[in-house]
Amino acid sequence: MNKTELLEKFHEIAVSPRAQMDRYLAEGKKVVLAAPVYTPEELVHAMGAVPMGVWGADVELNKAKTYFPAFLCSIVQSIVELGMNGDYKGASAIMVPHLCDSLKAMGQNFRCAVPDIPFIPVCYPQNRKPEYGLEFTISAYERVARDLSAATGLTLKPDALAASIAVYNEHNAVMRELSAALAIHGEITACQRSDIFKSAFFMRKEEHTALVRQLLKALQAEPAERTGKIPVMISGILADSPKFNKILDENGLHIVVDDLANESRQYRTDAPVTDDPMRDLAVKFQNTDNCSLLYDPKKARVNYIVDLYKKNRVKGLIIVITKFCDPEEFDYPLIKRACDENKIPNVMVEVDRQMVEYGQVQTTLDAFREMISE
Prior knowledge:
Helix 1 packs antiparallel against helix 9 (205-220), helix 6 (131-152) packs across helix 11 and helix 7 (158-184) runs parallel beside helix 11. The chain has helices at residues 3-15, 17-26, 41-46, 74-84, 101-113, 131-152, 158-184, 190-199, 205-220, 242-250, 277-287, 300-312, 326-341, 359-372; strands at 31-34, 50-53, 93-97, 119-122, 230-236, 253-260, 317-322, 346-351. By secondary structure, the chain is α/β, with parallel strands linked by helices. The chain is globular and about 60 Å long. The strands form 2 sheets. Strands 2-1-3-4 form a 4-stranded parallel sheet, with helices on both faces.
């Protein structure tokens, strides 16, 4: 496939996760849903099942309101809404990491709201760095593996887990390579970039790796286009709304680097390779840093963002806050202060899974574009 065909393929997959799920089910594979973020998909993959990411969707919330107050993260609420609507029918289980209060509430409510899909909690330690935190994570993963076996009828073997870790490490590497390539290929729009990253949630990682490698080969075969776009950095939990990305494209903003949980952030850390794959997987989580959802009393993420910005020589930072996401909102004042102190042009926009009109975001980014283009 050429570049255009590949981008169309990524888009097709990104907008039709149900079709992907039906394909895997038709092939006789079990599908396990993986809620965000840092869910140990390797355990599912090693059992021969297909992990599919669930980050909710831009849908109107109706049934989920029975279980949640209005002032709760719309990612969480929309996952339950989709479950209650039958969009996940056929899944063998859902894994939900307990990395924030909203995710904790979602797991228990999903259990009640969607009783035909078993709920598997992924309990992480707050203090993941000490040895006792590592041992806790190992124990949690072992329990998750038992729950997965009960839900799917499949078993986990150490050799298979080691092989799956290798598959995921390879995918991490190719996604990092992709990010570097997209930084210089301004002809790839924000909408297309989002499709590439989003499609990874709905495919077996070896399949997605193969497609991305084809795209990288296509990009290397032609020179990067001089588009005249303004290079920017974007940070936050989620920025996959087509309407939001269209605004970036209409303003001629080129995402050179991102610190998004649903994009590059999840690919920064590989699992080590030893003769103990379960421990290797736990060490991967132990080594994961610079995220608002992970405990860090020193808030190293703030300096990480400043350093990442300076390293990539962009002209502005767009901070995307998911409405009612407490961890991101707690981090924002610190990030804002650090950016101002370092004379980094920055702007904050708030998004929501239920947003229909993006007029305020449009106005904000129009003004920001004017500011950084001077």
